# Entry
Amino acid sequence: MTPYTKYQSRYNFAFIDESTKKEIRRKLLKAIAIPGYQVPYSSPEMPIARGWGTGGLHVTLSLIGKEDVLKVIDQGSDASVNACNLREFIQSMTQCQTTYDTVDATLIQSRHRITEEALREDQIFIFQVPQPEPLRSVERYEFKTRQMHGEADYAKMWVSLYESFVRHGDIMLGAGYPVKVNGRYIMAPSPIPRWDIPNLSQAKTLYLFGAGREKRLYAVPPFTTVEPLEFEDVKFNIEQFGDQRCYKTKYTRAFLDELYLDDGSRMHVVNDSNFLDKLEAGAEVNPFFNPYLAKIDL
Amino acid sequence: MHREIVYDPVFDAQRHYRQLLDCMSRPGKLNRLDRMDLHVPGGIHEGAALVAFALLNADVTFFAAGIGAAEINAYLKTQTFGRPAPGAEADFLFLSGADAMWISKAKRGTLPYPEEGATLVLSVDALVPGSLLVERLTPEGELRGESEQPERKRPEASHSPVLTLTLSGPGIEKERYLGVSGLSREFFTEWSACNQEFPLGVDLILADPYGWIGSLPRSTQIEVH
# Structure
Protein backbone atom coordinates (compact mmCIF):
# COMPACT_ATOMS: atom_id res chain seq x y z
CA MET A 1 0.00 0.00 0.00
CA THR A 2 1.28 3.47 -0.89
CA PRO A 3 1.41 5.68 2.16
CA TYR A 4 -0.71 8.78 1.83
CA THR A 5 1.80 11.59 2.13
CA LYS A 6 0.65 14.48 0.00
CA TYR A 7 -1.37 16.09 2.76
CA GLN A 8 -1.03 15.72 6.48
CA SER A 9 -4.68 14.88 6.76
CA ARG A 10 -7.13 13.34 4.34
CA TYR A 11 -9.88 15.69 5.44
CA ASN A 12 -10.33 19.41 5.81
CA PHE A 13 -9.97 20.68 9.38
CA ALA A 14 -13.22 19.83 11.21
CA PHE A 15 -14.35 17.66 8.28
CA ILE A 16 -16.81 20.11 6.69
CA ASP A 17 -15.52 22.11 3.70
CA GLU A 18 -14.94 25.82 4.31
CA SER A 19 -17.70 26.97 1.98
CA THR A 20 -20.35 24.99 3.84
CA LYS A 21 -18.92 26.10 7.18
CA LYS A 22 -19.41 29.71 6.07
CA GLU A 23 -23.00 28.99 5.21
CA ILE A 24 -23.68 27.41 8.61
CA ARG A 25 -21.85 30.28 10.31
CA ARG A 26 -23.93 32.91 8.53
CA LYS A 27 -27.14 31.09 9.37
CA LEU A 28 -26.15 30.82 13.04
CA LEU A 29 -25.66 34.60 13.23
CA LYS A 30 -29.17 35.07 11.85
CA ALA A 31 -30.51 32.46 14.27
CA ILE A 32 -29.07 34.47 17.16
CA ALA A 33 -30.47 37.73 15.78
CA ILE A 34 -33.97 36.18 15.70
CA PRO A 35 -34.11 34.11 18.92
CA GLY A 36 -36.17 30.94 18.58
CA TYR A 37 -36.67 31.22 14.81
CA GLN A 38 -35.72 28.13 12.76
CA VAL A 39 -33.28 29.03 9.98
CA PRO A 40 -33.19 26.52 7.09
CA TYR A 41 -29.68 25.34 6.17
CA SER A 42 -27.95 22.90 3.85
CA SER A 43 -27.32 20.05 6.34
CA PRO A 44 -24.39 18.51 4.44
CA GLU A 45 -23.66 14.79 4.32
CA MET A 46 -21.83 13.45 7.39
CA PRO A 47 -20.27 10.08 8.09
CA ILE A 48 -23.22 9.31 10.34
CA ALA A 49 -26.84 9.12 9.26
CA ARG A 50 -29.10 12.16 9.47
CA GLY A 51 -31.09 11.99 12.66
CA TRP A 52 -28.19 10.65 14.70
CA GLY A 53 -26.84 14.00 15.81
CA THR A 54 -25.75 15.51 12.50
CA GLY A 55 -27.34 18.88 13.29
CA GLY A 56 -25.35 19.23 16.51
CA LEU A 57 -22.30 17.97 14.68
CA HIS A 58 -22.64 20.61 11.94
CA VAL A 59 -22.85 23.38 14.53
CA THR A 60 -19.96 22.02 16.60
CA LEU A 61 -17.70 21.47 13.59
CA SER A 62 -18.32 24.94 12.18
CA LEU A 63 -17.47 26.55 15.53
CA ILE A 64 -14.65 24.43 16.84
CA GLY A 65 -10.98 25.44 16.82
CA LYS A 66 -7.83 23.70 17.92
CA GLU A 67 -7.89 25.40 21.34
CA ASP A 68 -11.38 24.21 22.21
CA VAL A 69 -12.07 21.67 24.92
CA LEU A 70 -14.98 19.50 23.89
CA LYS A 71 -17.52 17.60 25.94
CA VAL A 72 -20.19 15.44 24.33
CA ILE A 73 -23.08 14.05 26.31
CA ASP A 74 -25.94 11.77 25.39
CA GLN A 75 -28.91 11.94 27.77
CA GLY A 76 -26.61 13.12 30.52
CA SER A 77 -23.97 10.46 29.98
CA ASP A 78 -20.47 10.97 28.60
CA ALA A 79 -20.10 7.25 28.07
CA SER A 80 -22.99 6.17 25.90
CA VAL A 81 -22.49 5.12 22.28
CA ASN A 82 -23.68 8.31 20.61
CA ALA A 83 -21.52 10.51 22.84
CA CYS A 84 -18.39 8.37 22.49
CA ASN A 85 -18.57 8.13 18.73
CA LEU A 86 -19.29 11.81 18.12
CA ARG A 87 -16.53 12.84 20.53
CA GLU A 88 -14.03 10.51 18.89
CA PHE A 89 -15.01 11.72 15.42
CA ILE A 90 -14.75 15.44 16.27
CA GLN A 91 -11.47 14.87 18.10
CA SER A 92 -9.93 12.99 15.19
CA MET A 93 -11.02 15.73 12.75
CA THR A 94 -9.73 18.64 14.84
CA GLN A 95 -7.14 17.34 17.34
CA CYS A 96 -8.99 19.35 19.99
CA GLN A 97 -8.90 18.38 23.65
CA THR A 98 -11.83 16.49 25.08
CA THR A 99 -13.11 16.25 28.62
CA TYR A 100 -15.86 14.75 30.76
CA ASP A 101 -15.74 17.68 33.15
CA THR A 102 -18.46 20.27 32.50
CA VAL A 103 -16.34 23.00 34.10
CA ASP A 104 -13.35 22.43 31.79
CA ALA A 105 -15.31 22.36 28.54
CA THR A 106 -15.57 25.32 26.16
CA LEU A 107 -17.95 23.59 23.74
CA ILE A 108 -20.56 21.11 24.93
CA GLN A 109 -22.60 19.10 22.46
CA SER A 110 -25.57 17.39 24.02
CA ARG A 111 -28.35 15.04 23.20
CA HIS A 112 -31.50 15.70 25.24
CA ARG A 113 -30.03 17.10 28.45
CA ILE A 114 -28.53 20.27 29.89
CA THR A 115 -25.81 19.65 32.44
CA GLU A 116 -26.70 19.86 36.11
CA GLU A 117 -23.71 22.10 36.66
CA ALA A 118 -24.25 25.76 35.84
CA LEU A 119 -22.77 26.93 32.55
CA ARG A 120 -20.60 29.99 32.09
CA GLU A 121 -20.38 32.90 29.64
CA ASP A 122 -17.33 31.48 27.88
CA GLN A 123 -19.03 28.19 27.12
CA ILE A 124 -21.27 27.37 24.16
CA PHE A 125 -23.91 24.67 24.50
CA ILE A 126 -25.05 22.81 21.37
CA PHE A 127 -28.16 20.65 21.18
CA GLN A 128 -28.87 17.82 18.77
CA VAL A 129 -32.51 18.23 17.77
CA PRO A 130 -34.69 15.49 16.23
CA GLN A 131 -37.84 17.58 15.61
CA PRO A 132 -37.35 21.38 15.56
CA GLU A 133 -40.98 22.25 14.79
CA PRO A 134 -43.08 22.59 17.97
CA LEU A 135 -46.24 23.06 15.86
CA ARG A 136 -45.80 19.82 13.91
CA SER A 137 -48.13 17.97 16.26
CA VAL A 138 -50.94 20.41 15.43
CA GLU A 139 -50.11 21.25 11.79
CA ARG A 140 -48.72 18.80 9.28
CA TYR A 141 -47.56 21.17 6.51
CA GLU A 142 -44.30 23.08 6.70
CA PHE A 143 -45.54 26.06 4.68
CA LYS A 144 -48.40 26.47 7.12
CA THR A 145 -46.31 26.22 10.28
CA ARG A 146 -43.91 28.74 8.75
CA GLN A 147 -46.80 31.11 8.17
CA MET A 148 -48.09 30.51 11.69
CA HIS A 149 -44.67 31.38 13.12
CA GLY A 150 -44.47 34.44 10.87
CA GLU A 151 -47.78 35.73 12.12
CA ALA A 152 -47.24 34.53 15.71
CA ASP A 153 -50.49 32.60 15.29
CA TYR A 154 -50.19 30.01 18.03
CA ALA A 155 -53.88 29.42 18.72
CA LYS A 156 -53.72 25.75 17.64
CA MET A 157 -50.88 25.10 20.06
CA TRP A 158 -52.79 26.61 22.97
CA VAL A 159 -55.89 24.64 22.05
CA SER A 160 -53.89 21.40 22.00
CA LEU A 161 -52.52 22.15 25.48
CA TYR A 162 -56.04 22.93 26.68
CA GLU A 163 -57.38 19.69 25.18
CA SER A 164 -54.62 17.75 26.83
CA PHE A 165 -55.62 19.23 30.18
CA VAL A 166 -59.31 18.54 29.62
CA ARG A 167 -58.68 14.91 28.60
CA HIS A 168 -55.99 13.94 31.05
CA GLY A 169 -56.11 16.54 33.83
CA ASP A 170 -52.60 17.70 33.01
CA ILE A 171 -50.49 18.91 30.10
CA MET A 172 -49.19 15.55 28.95
CA LEU A 173 -45.89 16.76 27.56
CA GLY A 174 -42.71 15.48 29.12
CA ALA A 175 -39.54 15.94 27.13
CA GLY A 176 -39.52 18.79 24.60
CA TYR A 177 -42.05 20.98 26.38
CA PRO A 178 -42.84 23.95 24.07
CA VAL A 179 -41.43 27.31 25.16
CA LYS A 180 -41.83 30.90 24.05
CA VAL A 181 -38.56 32.68 23.37
CA ASN A 182 -38.20 36.42 23.94
CA GLY A 183 -41.99 36.75 23.94
CA ARG A 184 -42.18 35.97 20.22
CA TYR A 185 -41.41 32.52 18.79
CA ILE A 186 -42.63 29.21 20.14
CA MET A 187 -39.67 26.85 20.09
CA ALA A 188 -39.07 23.15 20.60
CA PRO A 189 -36.26 23.00 23.17
CA SER A 190 -35.22 19.56 21.76
CA PRO A 191 -36.41 16.71 23.96
CA ILE A 192 -34.77 17.93 27.13
CA PRO A 193 -36.81 17.01 30.22
CA ARG A 194 -39.01 19.71 31.72
CA TRP A 195 -36.40 19.74 34.47
CA ASP A 196 -33.97 21.60 32.18
CA ILE A 197 -36.40 24.14 30.71
CA PRO A 198 -35.99 26.81 33.43
CA ASN A 199 -32.22 26.69 32.87
CA LEU A 200 -32.68 27.99 29.30
CA SER A 201 -34.07 31.29 30.52
CA GLN A 202 -31.77 34.24 31.32
CA ALA A 203 -28.79 31.89 31.11
CA LYS A 204 -25.19 33.03 30.89
CA THR A 205 -24.47 30.66 28.03
CA LEU A 206 -25.27 30.76 24.35
CA TYR A 207 -27.51 27.83 23.40
CA LEU A 208 -27.41 26.65 19.78
CA PHE A 209 -29.71 24.02 18.27
CA GLY A 210 -29.03 21.95 15.18
CA ALA A 211 -31.59 19.67 13.54
CA GLY A 212 -29.71 17.81 10.81
CA ARG A 213 -32.47 15.63 9.41
CA GLU A 214 -34.97 18.50 9.37
CA LYS A 215 -32.29 20.96 8.18
CA ARG A 216 -32.94 23.70 10.71
CA LEU A 217 -30.74 25.81 13.01
CA TYR A 218 -31.94 27.98 15.87
CA ALA A 219 -30.60 29.66 18.96
CA VAL A 220 -31.33 31.07 22.38
CA PRO A 221 -28.85 33.88 23.10
CA PRO A 222 -27.68 34.42 26.68
CA PHE A 223 -29.92 36.52 28.93
CA THR A 224 -33.02 35.80 26.87
CA THR A 225 -36.38 35.11 28.47
CA VAL A 226 -37.62 31.59 27.75
CA GLU A 227 -41.06 30.83 29.16
CA PRO A 228 -42.67 27.39 29.13
CA LEU A 229 -46.26 27.59 27.82
CA GLU A 230 -48.67 27.58 30.74
CA PHE A 231 -52.11 28.82 31.66
CA GLU A 232 -52.99 31.22 34.43
CA ASP A 233 -54.54 28.37 36.41
CA VAL A 234 -52.54 25.42 35.05
CA LYS A 235 -48.88 26.00 35.63
CA PHE A 236 -45.81 24.41 34.16
CA ASN A 237 -43.83 22.29 36.58
CA ILE A 238 -40.70 20.22 36.44
CA GLU A 239 -40.68 16.45 36.98
CA GLN A 240 -41.56 15.41 40.51
CA PHE A 241 -39.67 12.51 42.04
CA GLY A 242 -41.59 12.53 45.31
CA ASP A 243 -39.38 11.39 48.16
CA GLN A 244 -37.01 9.48 45.86
CA ARG A 245 -33.31 10.12 46.23
CA CYS A 246 -30.26 9.08 44.27
CA TYR A 247 -29.40 5.69 45.79
CA LYS A 248 -25.68 6.39 45.50
CA THR A 249 -25.46 9.93 46.80
CA LYS A 250 -28.83 10.67 48.48
CA TYR A 251 -29.00 13.78 46.28
CA THR A 252 -32.46 15.17 45.37
CA ARG A 253 -31.94 18.35 43.36
CA ALA A 254 -30.83 16.63 40.15
CA PHE A 255 -32.73 14.88 37.38
CA LEU A 256 -33.00 11.21 38.35
CA ASP A 257 -32.99 8.08 36.22
CA GLU A 258 -35.20 5.20 37.29
CA LEU A 259 -33.41 1.86 37.40
CA TYR A 260 -35.31 -1.43 37.32
CA LEU A 261 -33.48 -4.19 39.14
CA ASP A 262 -33.67 -7.94 38.50
CA ASP A 263 -35.95 -8.52 41.47
CA GLY A 264 -38.49 -6.03 40.10
CA SER A 265 -37.62 -3.29 42.57
CA ARG A 266 -36.77 0.23 41.45
CA MET A 267 -34.08 2.68 42.37
CA HIS A 268 -33.16 6.18 41.30
CA VAL A 269 -29.78 7.55 40.33
CA VAL A 270 -28.52 10.98 39.21
CA ASN A 271 -28.75 11.13 35.41
CA ASP A 272 -25.84 13.48 34.67
CA SER A 273 -22.82 11.15 34.74
CA ASN A 274 -20.19 13.81 35.36
CA PHE A 275 -22.29 15.37 38.11
CA LEU A 276 -22.78 11.96 39.71
CA ASP A 277 -19.03 11.28 39.57
CA LYS A 278 -18.32 14.60 41.24
CA LEU A 279 -20.91 14.00 43.97
CA GLU A 280 -19.52 10.56 44.65
CA ALA A 281 -15.97 11.90 44.82
CA GLY A 282 -17.13 14.64 47.17
CA ALA A 283 -15.85 17.28 44.74
CA GLU A 284 -17.16 20.83 44.75
CA VAL A 285 -20.13 21.30 42.44
CA ASN A 286 -21.86 24.43 41.24
CA PRO A 287 -25.28 23.32 40.02
CA PHE A 288 -27.94 25.38 38.24
CA PHE A 289 -30.52 26.92 40.53
CA ASN A 290 -34.06 28.05 39.71
CA PRO A 291 -37.36 28.65 41.54
CA TYR A 292 -38.57 25.11 40.74
CA LEU A 293 -35.52 23.51 42.32
CA ALA A 294 -35.95 25.71 45.39
CA LYS A 295 -39.13 23.78 46.22
CA ILE A 296 -37.27 20.47 46.47
CA ASP A 297 -35.97 19.54 49.90
CA LEU A 298 -32.31 18.68 49.99
CA MET B 1 -5.09 42.50 -7.48
CA HIS B 2 -3.49 39.71 -5.51
CA ARG B 3 -5.13 37.44 -3.00
CA GLU B 4 -4.15 38.15 0.59
CA ILE B 5 -1.57 35.58 1.63
CA VAL B 6 -1.32 36.40 5.34
CA TYR B 7 -4.93 35.37 5.93
CA ASP B 8 -5.59 31.73 6.75
CA PRO B 9 -9.05 30.87 5.43
CA VAL B 10 -9.40 27.95 7.86
CA PHE B 11 -8.03 29.01 11.23
CA ASP B 12 -8.22 32.82 11.02
CA ALA B 13 -11.80 32.55 9.76
CA GLN B 14 -12.68 30.20 12.62
CA ARG B 15 -11.09 32.42 15.27
CA HIS B 16 -12.68 35.60 13.91
CA TYR B 17 -16.05 33.92 13.57
CA ARG B 18 -16.02 32.90 17.22
CA GLN B 19 -15.37 36.52 18.19
CA LEU B 20 -18.15 37.63 15.87
CA LEU B 21 -20.50 35.01 17.34
CA ASP B 22 -19.70 36.34 20.81
CA CYS B 23 -20.46 39.90 19.63
CA MET B 24 -23.74 38.86 18.03
CA SER B 25 -24.95 36.89 21.03
CA ARG B 26 -23.98 39.72 23.43
CA PRO B 27 -24.96 42.91 21.59
CA GLY B 28 -22.68 45.84 22.31
CA LYS B 29 -19.82 43.69 23.58
CA LEU B 30 -16.62 44.51 21.72
CA ASN B 31 -14.00 42.01 20.62
CA ARG B 32 -10.70 42.83 18.97
CA LEU B 33 -9.56 41.13 15.79
CA ASP B 34 -5.76 40.97 15.58
CA ARG B 35 -4.14 43.23 13.00
CA MET B 36 -3.21 41.33 9.85
CA ASP B 37 -1.84 44.14 7.64
CA LEU B 38 -4.14 43.36 4.77
CA HIS B 39 -4.09 45.56 1.67
CA VAL B 40 -7.58 46.88 2.32
CA PRO B 41 -8.79 49.69 0.02
CA GLY B 42 -9.92 53.03 1.49
CA GLY B 43 -13.46 53.36 2.80
CA ILE B 44 -13.50 50.03 4.61
CA HIS B 45 -11.62 49.09 7.79
CA GLU B 46 -9.55 45.95 8.14
CA GLY B 47 -12.02 44.67 10.75
CA ALA B 48 -14.87 44.94 8.25
CA ALA B 49 -12.77 43.17 5.62
CA LEU B 50 -12.02 40.35 8.06
CA VAL B 51 -15.75 39.99 8.76
CA ALA B 52 -16.24 39.68 5.00
CA PHE B 53 -13.47 37.08 4.78
CA ALA B 54 -15.11 35.04 7.53
CA LEU B 55 -18.63 35.11 6.08
CA LEU B 56 -18.70 35.78 2.35
CA ASN B 57 -18.43 33.27 -0.46
CA ALA B 58 -19.94 32.74 -3.90
CA ASP B 59 -23.32 31.88 -2.34
CA VAL B 60 -24.00 35.42 -1.14
CA THR B 61 -24.18 38.91 -2.58
CA PHE B 62 -22.72 42.13 -1.25
CA PHE B 63 -22.91 45.84 -1.90
CA ALA B 64 -20.57 48.74 -1.23
CA ALA B 65 -21.44 52.41 -1.58
CA GLY B 66 -19.53 55.66 -1.77
CA ILE B 67 -16.40 56.99 -3.46
CA GLY B 68 -14.29 53.88 -2.91
CA ALA B 69 -17.09 51.48 -3.88
CA ALA B 70 -15.41 50.24 -7.07
CA GLU B 71 -12.20 49.30 -5.22
CA ILE B 72 -14.09 47.69 -2.34
CA ASN B 73 -16.18 45.69 -4.81
CA ALA B 74 -13.11 44.50 -6.68
CA TYR B 75 -11.25 43.70 -3.46
CA LEU B 76 -14.04 41.72 -1.80
CA LYS B 77 -14.83 39.91 -5.03
CA THR B 78 -11.23 38.82 -5.48
CA GLN B 79 -10.73 37.82 -1.86
CA THR B 80 -14.02 36.13 -1.03
CA PHE B 81 -15.68 35.28 -4.39
CA GLY B 82 -18.82 37.01 -3.11
CA ARG B 83 -21.00 38.50 -5.84
CA PRO B 84 -21.68 42.26 -6.06
CA ALA B 85 -25.38 43.19 -6.20
CA PRO B 86 -27.57 46.29 -5.95
CA GLY B 87 -28.10 47.64 -2.41
CA ALA B 88 -31.73 46.54 -2.26
CA GLU B 89 -30.87 42.91 -3.06
CA ALA B 90 -27.54 42.37 -1.32
CA ASP B 91 -27.13 40.04 1.66
CA PHE B 92 -24.23 42.09 3.05
CA LEU B 93 -23.82 45.84 2.77
CA PHE B 94 -20.41 47.41 3.42
CA LEU B 95 -21.03 51.01 4.33
CA SER B 96 -19.54 53.93 6.24
CA GLY B 97 -20.30 57.54 7.13
CA ALA B 98 -23.20 59.16 5.27
CA ASP B 99 -23.53 56.14 2.95
CA ALA B 100 -24.84 54.19 5.93
CA MET B 101 -28.23 55.70 5.10
CA TRP B 102 -28.46 53.01 2.42
CA ILE B 103 -29.92 51.04 5.31
CA SER B 104 -33.38 52.29 4.33
CA LYS B 105 -33.01 50.32 1.05
CA ALA B 106 -31.62 47.14 2.60
CA LYS B 107 -33.82 44.06 2.49
CA ARG B 108 -35.54 43.07 5.71
CA GLY B 109 -36.67 39.53 4.95
CA THR B 110 -40.20 38.21 4.82
CA LEU B 111 -42.38 36.97 7.67
CA PRO B 112 -41.94 33.28 6.75
CA TYR B 113 -38.20 33.84 6.10
CA PRO B 114 -37.02 36.78 8.23
CA GLU B 115 -33.40 35.59 8.06
CA GLU B 116 -33.25 36.98 4.52
CA GLY B 117 -32.89 40.45 6.03
CA ALA B 118 -29.53 42.02 5.18
CA THR B 119 -26.45 42.31 7.38
CA LEU B 120 -24.79 45.74 7.41
CA VAL B 121 -21.05 45.79 8.01
CA LEU B 122 -20.29 49.37 9.02
CA SER B 123 -16.84 50.92 9.16
CA VAL B 124 -17.09 53.51 11.95
CA ASP B 125 -14.55 56.00 13.35
CA ALA B 126 -14.45 54.54 16.85
CA LEU B 127 -16.26 52.13 19.14
CA VAL B 128 -16.18 52.84 22.87
CA PRO B 129 -17.03 49.94 25.19
CA GLY B 130 -19.71 50.49 27.81
CA SER B 131 -17.22 49.99 30.64
CA LEU B 132 -15.42 53.19 29.59
CA LEU B 133 -18.66 55.08 29.04
CA VAL B 134 -20.40 54.36 32.31
CA GLU B 135 -17.92 56.39 34.39
CA ARG B 136 -18.48 59.38 32.15
CA LEU B 137 -22.26 59.19 31.99
CA THR B 138 -24.14 61.73 34.09
CA PRO B 139 -27.38 60.57 35.73
CA GLU B 140 -29.26 62.17 32.81
CA GLY B 141 -27.41 59.90 30.44
CA GLU B 142 -25.41 62.73 28.84
CA LEU B 143 -21.78 62.24 27.95
CA ARG B 144 -19.39 64.19 30.16
CA GLY B 145 -16.34 65.76 28.48
CA GLU B 146 -14.48 64.61 25.41
CA SER B 147 -13.80 60.92 24.98
CA GLU B 148 -10.43 60.18 26.51
CA GLN B 149 -8.84 56.91 25.59
CA PRO B 150 -5.09 56.97 26.02
CA GLU B 151 -4.47 53.63 24.34
CA ARG B 152 -7.09 54.04 21.62
CA LYS B 153 -6.79 57.63 20.44
CA ARG B 154 -9.07 58.65 17.67
CA PRO B 155 -7.40 59.88 14.46
CA GLU B 156 -6.86 63.67 14.36
CA ALA B 157 -8.73 64.05 11.10
CA SER B 158 -12.12 62.77 12.24
CA HIS B 159 -13.88 64.57 15.04
CA SER B 160 -17.32 63.11 14.67
CA PRO B 161 -19.21 63.07 17.97
CA VAL B 162 -19.56 59.90 20.02
CA LEU B 163 -23.15 58.76 20.23
CA THR B 164 -23.94 56.81 23.37
CA LEU B 165 -26.35 53.96 22.85
CA THR B 166 -28.22 52.27 25.66
CA LEU B 167 -28.90 48.70 24.59
CA SER B 168 -31.37 46.17 25.92
CA GLY B 169 -32.88 42.91 24.70
CA PRO B 170 -31.72 39.32 24.22
CA GLY B 171 -28.05 38.82 25.06
CA ILE B 172 -27.96 41.72 27.52
CA GLU B 173 -28.48 41.13 31.23
CA LYS B 174 -30.14 44.47 31.97
CA GLU B 175 -28.59 47.24 29.96
CA ARG B 176 -25.35 47.75 28.14
CA TYR B 177 -23.80 50.94 26.81
CA LEU B 178 -21.93 51.38 23.58
CA GLY B 179 -20.30 54.50 22.20
CA VAL B 180 -20.21 54.86 18.43
CA SER B 181 -18.45 57.61 16.53
CA GLY B 182 -18.95 57.94 12.79
CA LEU B 183 -22.66 57.21 12.46
CA SER B 184 -25.44 59.74 12.67
CA ARG B 185 -28.39 59.85 15.03
CA GLU B 186 -30.62 59.63 11.92
CA PHE B 187 -28.97 56.34 11.03
CA PHE B 188 -30.01 54.75 14.30
CA THR B 189 -33.52 56.18 13.97
CA GLU B 190 -33.70 54.57 10.54
CA TRP B 191 -32.33 51.29 11.91
CA SER B 192 -34.99 51.20 14.65
CA ALA B 193 -37.61 51.86 11.96
CA CYS B 194 -36.26 48.92 9.94
CA ASN B 195 -36.71 46.65 12.96
CA GLN B 196 -40.12 47.94 13.92
CA GLU B 197 -41.82 44.88 12.53
CA PHE B 198 -39.75 42.22 14.31
CA PRO B 199 -38.77 39.53 13.18
CA LEU B 200 -38.21 41.52 10.00
CA GLY B 201 -35.14 43.69 10.17
CA VAL B 202 -31.50 44.37 9.54
CA ASP B 203 -28.52 43.26 11.63
CA LEU B 204 -25.48 45.46 12.16
CA ILE B 205 -21.82 44.59 12.55
CA LEU B 206 -19.65 47.57 13.48
CA ALA B 207 -15.90 47.72 12.89
CA ASP B 208 -13.54 50.49 13.94
CA PRO B 209 -10.03 51.28 12.61
CA TYR B 210 -8.36 49.61 15.62
CA GLY B 211 -9.74 46.17 14.90
CA TRP B 212 -12.58 46.29 17.44
CA ILE B 213 -15.86 44.84 16.30
CA GLY B 214 -19.29 44.92 17.87
CA SER B 215 -22.69 43.85 16.78
CA LEU B 216 -26.29 45.00 17.02
CA PRO B 217 -28.78 42.31 15.96
CA ARG B 218 -32.34 43.32 15.09
CA SER B 219 -33.59 42.00 18.44
CA THR B 220 -31.76 44.78 20.31
CA GLN B 221 -33.60 47.89 21.46
CA ILE B 222 -31.60 51.09 21.48
CA GLU B 223 -31.86 54.50 22.99
CA VAL B 224 -29.56 57.18 21.58
CA HIS B 225 -28.18 59.92 23.84
Summary: Chain B has one domain: 11-224. Residues 138-157 of chain B have pLDDT under 50 and may be disordered. The domain at 11-224 of chain B is CATH 3.40.50.11310 (Rossmann fold).
